[in-house]
C-alpha cells in the first residue's frame, strides 16, 4: 500500500494524506486531483511513502495524477521549502503562489495558442510610408512587415493597440491564434554591434563579474544614476547568453521602463520575454513554459518573476535593488531580493544587485563580506555634476508651498527652454478639509484618518481605505459653509502653478492621473519631446525614468520626511532624494537640485548633500548599530487587528507572555509592545503590533518556530486577525 502527502491551497499549515491507487504514478512536485470535503481540489505532492500515521479507513484515494514530472526544479523546490520555514507561511500557499494561475487551477502544463497580429495580403503589399498622416499606424505596419507580433508583446514593443485596431479596420492586418514557435535560439544567437565603449569603471565591473560567472557570487553594483549600470548588465549578459544560458532580470515596475526593455531586445538576437500586468493567464503560462524549456533567453519581470523556472539559468540581475516593491506587503511577505540571492546560491550562479542607493541591509552585507561591491562613480553620458542646495524657508511666506527663491529659479530654467520637476509626496488637492467656524475636520470614520480633498472629482477620499464621499457644502457639525482646506497636495500645486506660468505646459504624475491604462506612457512621451515644461509628481516620478530635459528638481516638503516615527524614514528619504537628484541635468545640461526646509542645519541633510548617499548610509548604519536596530538585529513583527479595540491588544499580550515563557527565550530578545500600529485604525479595524528584535537570526527563528504551534491555543487567537512579518519594511 502506498500513500502520498499533498499540500493544498489552504491558508493554514497542514499536510493532507491520501491513498495511492496501484496504477497511479504521481511525482514529488507534481500535481494531483484529490477529494477535499465535498469537492475536488488540486494538490502538490510533497512526499510518497509506504506507511501512514493516519488510520487507513480515514484515508481516501487521490482521483487523478496531473503531472508526470515535477513542476519545480530541484533548486526552486529547496528555495521554496526554505522560505516556508523562514517566513512561517503555509506550505500550500507558498508552493501554489510560485505557479502560474492556470497551473494552480489544474490546467495542463502546455502552451495554448496565443493571439498574434499579422499583416494581411493587402497589408503586405502596402508601403508604410503611404500612412504618413498616421505615424503610429505607420510604425505598427512597419513592425508587422518585419514579422507577426504576439498580442502580449504589443506594449513592450511600444506599439499602440489603437493603431493596430485602425489598421485592422482598413484590412491591413488581423489577429489569429498561433501556437507559439518553439525553436532553439542558441545557434542563431548574436549580439548587436551598436554597443557603447565601456569606460574604465564599467569595464572593471564587467571584468570582475565575468571572472566568476560560473559560480555563486553576489555583487552590489553601486552606480549613481546614469553611470551606465544597464550597460554593465547588458555586457555581462552577453557572455552568459553566448554560453547558451538564460538570464532573469527583476525590475521594480515594468510600465516605467519601456526604454530599458527595448535596450535588452535591441542588443541581443534572442527571445526576451516580459512578465507584465497586461498578460492574460495563457500568455503568462506560455512565458513560464518557454523559460522552463530553455526557449527564451531573458525573462524580465517584477517581484514574482523570481519564481520562473529556467532550464539553464546563468545569472540574476536585480535592478534598483533597494526598492521596497520587492517586498510583498500582504499574505506571504517574502522579499524577492533576499530570495533571489538564495536562489543564486542554490543555482551556483552570479547575482548582480544594481542601484544608486543601496539598501542599508545590502551595504551591511558588503561590510560582512557576503556581497562584493563594484562602484560606478561617474556618469557615463555627461560629466556635469548637479548643483545641490538647501533653501532655508524658515520665516518665508510660501505661495502654495513654493518659496519666492524657488519660483525665481523655476523662471530661469523655464526661460532656457528646460524642464522643472517638483516633487511632493502627497496626492490630492489638500490632505484635510476643516470648518473655519467650529474646527470640525472631515474624517473617515472607519480609519479615524483625515479625508483628502480631491477637488477635480469633487470628492473626499480616505487614503487608508480608499473610501470616498461627495464633497460636503456645509460643516457636518455646525452647518457653516466656511469650509477651508489645510495643507498642500499635488492637485493643488498644479492648480496654483497654472496662473503663475500660463504659457508652460504642466504634467502631473501621481496615482490619480496615471490610473488609466497607458496614461503614464502618454505623459512620459510628452515629457520626452522636450521644450519647457513643469512636472509635478509623487514618488512615482522618482522611479527609473529618464528625463533628459529636466534641469531643476525641487523637493518641496523635506521636513515631513525627515521627522518621522519610523526608523526607516531617513533611509527612504535619502534614497528618494538621491534618485530624484539623479534625474536633473542628465544630458549635456547643468542640473540643479533645491531642497526647501526649515532645518537646513539638520545633520542628515548636511551629510547627504555634502558627502553623498554612501556616507549617509555609513553614518545611519552606525546609528542603527548603537540602537540595536536592523540590519544589526533580526526583526519580526506580529500584527493583529479587531473591530472593537479590545481583542487585538489582548491577543498580543498573551502572545508576548507565551514568548516570555518559552525555554528558548533569552535575554538578548528585545520585545516591544503590544503597541498600536503607525496607522492605528484602518477600514474599521483597530491595529496592534508586537515587535521582536534579536541579534541572532537563528535564535529568533527558533523561538518563533517553537512558539507558533501554541498560538492557536491562545484564548483570543480566534477573535482577531493576526499575521507575522519576517524582516518587515513598514510598521
Ligand atoms: P544607469 O542604468 O546607471 O542609469 P544607463 O546604462 O542607462 O545608466 O546609462 C545612462 C546613459 O549613458 C545611457 O544613455 C547610455 O546609453 C549611456 N552610456 C552608458 N554607458 C556608456 C558608455 N560607456 N559610453 C557612452 N555612453 C554610455
Ligand atoms: Zn463647523
Ligand atoms: Zn478610511
UniProtKB/TrEMBL annotation:
GO terms for molecular function: 3'-5' DNA helicase activity; ATP binding; ATP hydrolysis activity; DNA binding; zinc ion binding. GO terms for cellular component: primosome complex. SMART domains: DEXDc (SM00487), HELICc (SM00490). It comes from the Bacteria. Zn(2+) 1 binds at residues 435, 438, 475, 478. It catalyses: Couples ATP hydrolysis with the unwinding of duplex DNA by translocating in the 3'-5' direction; ATP + H2O = ADP + phosphate + H(+). Residues 210-376 form the Helicase ATP-binding domain. InterPro entries: DEAD/DEAH_box_helicase_dom, Helicase_ATP-bd, Helicase_C-like, P-loop_NTPase, PriA, PriA_3primeBD, PriA_3primeBD_sf, PriA_C. GO terms for biological process: DNA recombination; DNA replication initiation; DNA replication, synthesis of primer; double-strand break repair. Residues 459-632 form the Helicase C-terminal domain. Keywords: ATP-binding, DNA replication, DNA-binding, Helicase, Hydrolase, Isomerase, Metal-binding, Nucleotide-binding, Primosome, Zinc. Component of the replication restart primosome. Initiates the restart of stalled replication forks, which reloads the replicative helicase on sites other than the origin of replication. Recognizes and binds to abandoned replication forks and remodels them to uncover a helicase loading site. Promotes assembly of the primosome at these replication forks. This is Replication restart protein PriA. It comes from Candidatus Doolittlea endobia.
Amino acid at each position: 500500500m502506498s500513500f502520498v502527502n499533498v499540500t493544498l491551497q489552504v491558508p493554514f499549515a497542514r499536510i493532507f494524506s491520501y491513498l495511492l491507487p496501484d496504477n497511479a504514478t504521481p511525482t514529488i512536485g507534481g500535481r494531483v486531483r484529490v477529494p477535499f470535503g465535498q469537492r475536488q481540489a488540486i494538490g502538490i505532492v510533497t512526499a510518497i511513502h509506504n506507511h501512514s500515521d493516519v488510520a487507513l479507513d480515514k484515508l481516501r484515494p487521490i482521483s487523478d495524477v496531473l503531472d508526470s514530472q515535477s513542476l519545480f526544479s530541484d533548486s526552486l523546490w529547496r528555495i521554496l521549502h526554505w522560505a516556508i520555514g523562514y517566513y512561517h507561511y503555509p506550505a500550500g500557499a507558498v508552493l501554489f503562489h510560485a505557479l502560474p494561475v492556470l497551473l494552480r487551477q489544474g490546467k495542463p502544463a502546455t502552451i495554448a495558442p496565443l493571439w498574434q497580429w499579422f499583416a494581411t495580403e493587402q497589408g503586405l503589399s502596402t508601403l508604410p510610408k503611404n500612412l504618413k498622416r498616421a505615424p503610429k499606424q505607420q510604425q505598427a505596419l512597419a513592425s508587422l512587415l518585419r514579422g507577426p507580433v504576439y498580442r502580449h508583446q504589443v506594449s513592450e514593443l511600444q506599439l499602440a493597440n489603437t493603431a493596430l485596431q485602425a489598421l485592422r479596420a482598413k484590412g491591413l492586418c488581423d489577429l489569429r491564434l498561433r501556437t507559439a514557435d518553439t525553436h532553439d535560439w542558441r545557434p542563431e544567437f548574436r549580439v548587436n554591434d551598436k554597443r557603447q565603449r565601456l569606460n574604465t569603471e564599467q569595464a572593471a565591473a564587467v571584468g570582475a563579474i565575468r571572472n566568476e560567472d560560473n559560480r555563486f557570487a553576489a555583487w552590489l553594483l553601486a552606480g549613481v544614476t546614469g553611470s551606465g549600470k544597464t550597460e554593465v548588465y547588458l555586457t555581462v549578459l552577453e557572455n552568459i547568453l553566448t554560453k547558451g544560458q538564460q538570464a532573469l532580470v527583476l525590475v521594480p515596475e515594468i510600465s516605467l521602463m519601456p526604454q530599458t526593455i527595448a535596450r535588452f531586445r535591441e542588443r541581443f538576437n534572442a527571445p526576451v520575454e516580459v512578465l507584465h500586468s497586461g498578460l492574460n493567464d495563457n500568455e503568462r503560462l506560455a512565458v513560464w513554459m518557454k523559460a522552463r524549456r530553455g526557449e527564451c533567453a531573458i525573462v524580465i519581470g517584477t517581484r514574482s518573476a523570481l519564481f520562473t523556472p529556467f532550464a539553464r539559468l546563468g545569472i540574476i540581475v536585480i535592478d534598483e535593488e533597494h526598492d521596497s516593491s520587492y517586498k510583498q506587503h500582504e499574505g506571504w511577505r517574502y522579499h524577492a531580493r533576499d530570495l533571489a540571492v538564495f536562489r543564486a546560491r542554490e543555482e551556483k550562479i552570479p547575482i548582480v544587485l544594481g542601484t544608486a542607493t543601496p539598501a542599508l541591509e545590502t551595504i551591511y552585507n558588503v561590510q560582512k563580506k557576503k556581497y562584493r561591491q563594484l562602484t560606478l562613480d561617474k556618469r557615463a553620458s555627461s560629466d556635469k555634476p548637479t548643483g545641490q542646495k538647501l533653501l532655508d524657508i524658515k520665516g518665508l511666506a510660501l505661495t502654495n508651498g513654493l518659496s519666492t527663491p524657488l519660483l525665481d529659479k523655476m523662471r530661469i530654467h523655464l526661460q532656457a527652454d528646460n524642464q522643472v520637476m517638483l516633487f511632493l509626496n502627497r496626492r490630492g488637492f489638500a490632505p484635510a478639509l476643516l470648518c473655519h467656524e467650529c474646527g470640525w475636520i472631515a474624517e473617515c470614520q472607519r480609519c479615524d484618518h483625515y479625508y483628502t480633498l480631491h477637488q477635480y472629482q469633487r470628492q473626499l477620499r480616505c487614503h487608508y481605505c480608499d473610501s470616498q464621499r461627495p464633497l460636503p457644502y456645509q460643516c457636518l457639525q455646525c452647518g457653516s459653509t466656511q469650509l477651508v482646506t489645510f495643507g498642500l497636495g499635488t492637485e493643488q500645486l498644479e492648480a496654483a502653478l497654472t496662473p503663475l506660468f500660463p504659457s508652460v505646459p504642466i504634467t502631473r504624475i501621481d496615482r490619480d492621473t496615471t490610473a488609466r491604462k497607458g496614461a503614464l506612457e502618454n505623459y512620459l512621451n510628452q515629457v520626452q519631446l522636450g521644450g519647457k515644461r513643469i512636472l509635478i509628481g509623487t514618488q512615482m516620478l522618482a522611479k527609473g525614468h529618464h528625463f533628459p530635459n529636466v534641469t531643476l528638481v525641487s523637493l518641496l516638503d523635506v521636513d515631513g520626511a525627515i521627522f518621522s516615527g519610523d526608523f526607516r524614514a531617513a533611509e527612504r528619504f535619502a534614497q528618494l532624494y538621491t534618485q530624484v537628484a539623479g534625474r536633473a541635468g542628465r544630458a549635456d545640461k547643468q542640473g540643479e537640485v533645491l531642497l526647501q526646509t526649515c532645518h537646513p542645519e539638520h545633520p542628515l541633510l548636511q551629510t547627504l548633500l555634502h558627502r553623498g548617499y554612501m556616507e549617509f548610509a555609513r553614518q545611519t548604519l552606525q546609528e542603527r548599530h548603537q540602537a540595536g536596530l536592523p540590519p544589526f538585529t533580526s526583526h519580526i513583527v506580529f500584527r493583529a487587528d479587531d473591530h472593537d479595540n479590545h481583542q487585538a491588544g489582548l491577543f498580543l499580550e498573551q502572545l508576548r507572555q507565551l514568548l516570555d515563557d518559552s525555554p528558548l527565550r533569552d535575554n538578548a530578545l528585545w520585545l516591544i509592545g503590544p503597541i498600536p500600529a503607525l496607522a492605528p485604525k484602518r477600514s474599521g479595524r483597530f491595529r496592534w503590533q508586537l515587535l521582536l528584535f534579536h541579534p541572532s537570526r537563528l535564535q529568533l527563528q527558533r523561538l518563533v518556530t517553537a512558539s507558533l504551534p501554541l498560538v492557536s491555543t491562545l484564548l483570543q487567537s480566534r477573535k482577531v486577525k493576526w499575521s507575522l512579518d519576517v524582516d518587515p519594511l513598514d510598521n
